[in-house]
Amino acid sequence: MRGGGTEVGKVEPEPGRATLERVDALYRDYILDHYKSPRNFGELEPHDLEWHDHNPLCGDELGVHVRVEHGRIAELRFHGQGCAISQAAASIASEELVGMPVADIPALSADWVTDLLGIDISPTRRKCALLNLKVMRGATTGDASWPES
């Protein structure tokens, strides 16, 4: 070592990089937890609204049953099958959607979902992540178009 620095030839990691890697690992664990133990998963009877759709690129399928009270989402259940991203995104979003005014659903953007996930989503996985918002829009407005940013 020289003057309290690093060993000769040893490269120090970039400042903050280790922290970013730990945060990224935490978000990946968070997504895996929601995939393995999804919240608000199953069917809901009785329900006021429902929708079912799929991602034609990968075959993910997702449906939703929603119970509404006083203009707010009182309860919801997602059901379906798909990759870890689509199922975890539905689970994570469901926790935020309960209690939300139904009238607020159309204003939710693709960025809302990706921000909830907390990790970068590749273009090929984007529709997987957004399928839950697509079915929620379908259930609440009849418009099941893919969400935009």
Describe this structure in words.
This protein has a three-stranded antiparallel beta sheet, covered by helices on one side. The protein starts with 16 loop residues before the first helix and ends in an 8-residue tail after the last helix. The longest helix has 20 residues, at 17-36. With 149 residues, the chain is an alpha+beta fold. It has a single domain (17-141), classed as Sufe protein. Chain: A (Alpha-Beta Complex). The protein is built from four helices and three strands.
Q: Please identify, by name, the CATH architecture.
A: Alpha-Beta Complex
Question: Rounded to an integer, what's the Rg over CA atoms?
Answer: 19 Å
If you consult CATH, what is the topology?
Sufe protein. Chain: A
The CATH class: Alpha Beta
Taking the sheet with the most strands, its summary is: 3 strands, antiparallel
Structural class assignment: alpha+beta
Averaged pLDDT: 87
Which strand order does the major sheet show?
A: 1-2-3
The percentage of residues in β strands lies in 15-25%
What's the β-strand tally? 3
SSE order: HEEEHHH
